[in-house]
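User: What would this chain look like folded?
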Amino acid sequence: MRSTGLPSPTVSDTVPESVPESVPDTESQTVSEIDIAPDRPLRPTAPVDTPWALSAGAVAHAFDVAVDHGLSEAEAASRRLRHGPNRLTAHRRRSAWGILLEQFKSLIMALLAAAAGVAYAFGETLEAGAVLVVIVLNTAIGFFTEWRAVRSMEALFAMGTVTTRVRRGGRIVEVPAEDIVPGEIVVLEGGDVVTADLRILTSSKLQADESALTGESVPVSKGAEATEPAAPLADRRSMLYKGTSLTRGSGHAVATATGMATELGAITKLVAETGEEATPLEKRLALLARRLIWITLVITVFVTVAGAVMGKPILLMIETGIALAVAAIPEGLPVVATIALARGLRRMARRNALVRRLSSVETLGATGIICTDKTGTLTENRMTLTRVAVATGDMDLPAAAPDALVREALTIGVLCNNASVMDISAATGDPLEVALLQAGVAVDLHREALVAEWPEVAEEAFDPDVKMMATFHAREGGFRVAVKGAPEAVLQAATHVLAADGAEPLTDERRRQWQARNEAMATAGFRVLAVARREAEQPDEAPYERLTFVGLLGLTDPPREEVRDALVACRRAGIEVVMVTGDQPVTAQRIGVAVGLVEPGAEVINGTDIPPLDRMDDALRARLLNARLFARVSPRQKLDLIELHQHAGRIVAMTGDGVNDAPALKKADIGVAMGLRGTQVAQEAAGMVLKDDAFSTIVAAIEEGRAIFENIRKFVRYLLSCNVSEVMVVGLAAMVGGTLPILPLQILFLNLVTDVFPALALGLGAGADNLMRRKPRDPAEPVLVRADWQAIAFYGVAFTLAVIGALEVAQRGLGLPEQEAVTISFLTLAFAQLWHVFNMRETGTSALRNEVTRNPYVWAALALCSGLTLAAVYIPPIAAALKVAPPGLAGWGVVLGMSLVPLVAGQARHALRARVSVHPTS
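Assistant: Here's the prediction, encoded as structure tokens.
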């Protein structure tokens, strides 16, 4: 499984072949100690109804697996064919038929069908056929765009595949969770998501969060002892169930059920298929569309009645009214939201940010503060052990001949370890523990050889409250305990210190000297770890009593080079960054200065000085809100810091990697988990996972989140301004009693061609260059603000004047007959809407070089729409259906001149607004 935080509580992958007879049968037994004799004869691989009631050995025998060897690859493949993949039925996957049927459930389809019916009833078979063509094309466009978007998002979500560590052929390997089969020997560690139903074989301080399955909010202690056959699920202490998670400890287990055969699978069968997740943005768009529908219907009825009263043919006005309703309703909003989200998610994935929940995309764009860890996020997470401090002095590594005390310190670091190395360059596990093993290999201290000499018989898993971990190793006459942890914790627990002549009492003066050496190493930039040892008679003794302090291990982890630029980008974007780490204050300050987060001498708030939130006074709250460095922070204090900033009205992003970070990741507005070193529990709790653990990736994701929201806002503003223009043009003509500038089928054509494709192109843009030079958006801000509605009204008027003006010039200036004059007004509106896409640029950007002109999809949409519009005029069957005719050279001159009016007006508006923003008092 993925390695956890410091230190990672896993079971060693090296299992001793034998254990001395003095080892008692305890909970912390090793794999080789399991009695494989069954309680009763069982047919190999036969189903086991109550595995919790059998001994660990009996269950292993039932599934025909050697615990210390695991399944072979061939046997695992055979069982996978027999039992199927280890996954639940994918209820949420939308089929192609389902997406197609959704296209016919919209109001737009009902209105189009009504238009076709009315036309057919009045004998207008050509127009009825044309409307049916529109229905087919509209359905095809909606289906293919949404199908690709949905499949794209499903593929992105599938990228977050959970992996599990299993024993295969005597080796521990990491495999996709869906490859787990019954009988698999699974390696357990705190922070893992349980991926199958498991019978525990060995455990050390193992606890599981089963709230998702049982509703019990408190983690449950787990062990290998059998329970009663009739025990309810919540009381089966020897079982772990798919969908739950490990909060601490380590151990081994055998998979007893996978996929739909698990307890979670049984529940899944009872759950009805749920609908697709709707983000807050999608809900606001849907609400906007519903409101516009009612407004449109009122306007449509008014225009239809007014036209009839003014003497227009009733059939023409009914068709016009229906066409107006079709044109004015922004039926493309849900589709473009899906497409924009899918496109944005792909861009984020390419930049190593995997978004797990769609709602997180919108939240990213409004993020105002990032609370970030240090290790692996601001630093490289390339741990190297470079200094060892012992009683005889400090030694920098690599050293040709380390003295006895240095060698003893390295030995403890290698023994008290859950990583594994094949050689000095190939390793798996927590980077800190890997660094210890690699330092040991460099001086010929190999863990396999050490454990063969001193077999590991028990482990005291890392406890974030105690800040230490320990392993018990059998030796002649007793046990040796190897301990590593935070220097202050180990020094506090130690009573002696190892000197050249043996263990000596650790006096208060010596303890202060070691604390000073610890602080000096931390100030020099080392991540400091302490190691200690003790002797024990039994492996169940308290591991942290009467310790003999051995020394300090100094590891280096250089800052990431790109962090400084990312922090500059955050400051420009109005985003505050706070370092929240469990490391020492001097280390936090040094890294903060190195990456440019703070100036030298900046205050570091120590977790020991932070009281609970309800006991803070106003002065302390203000101090914490302004602080940028926090050290030795507990999981509870992370929650308080998040709540403190949220109460101040900020949208908080919080990074985390360990199981203890999960509550903070859930509480934050956007939880960001580490993909390389993060636990599965942390990744499940987060809304986004960083595939490279880099801080700069968070900043890139925020930029993408802002771009997605702005693209959707541009799309809505563009589409509504085009729709409003069509309503205003026809409405004005109907009320004054003149020639209709656009006929019903022409409106449908515009709605299908010149509205949709440019709008979709806007939704796929990369975003403006100045996105990260603005303050964070208010999360309560609607999709369209007052300025957007003012712009829509302004553009509607500009379109109306241009189209009516073109019609007047054609009729009165050129003396053209009605069909040719209407052709000119139709083409004017069509091309005006195409040029109008350039009005969607951000104010303050260059008219020639901006996010719209750089968008290749915009140019492709313009080329396609221009070609379709020309085809509508010059291909006789289409021209006959639309009742248009070639306008001639003079007519094209009018079309070109008048269609540019909205573009010129829009650019003038941009220039005026930019001038006002620069000179607000002028």
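Residues 1-46, 271-277 have pLDDT under 50 and may be disordered. If you want, I can go into more detail on any region.
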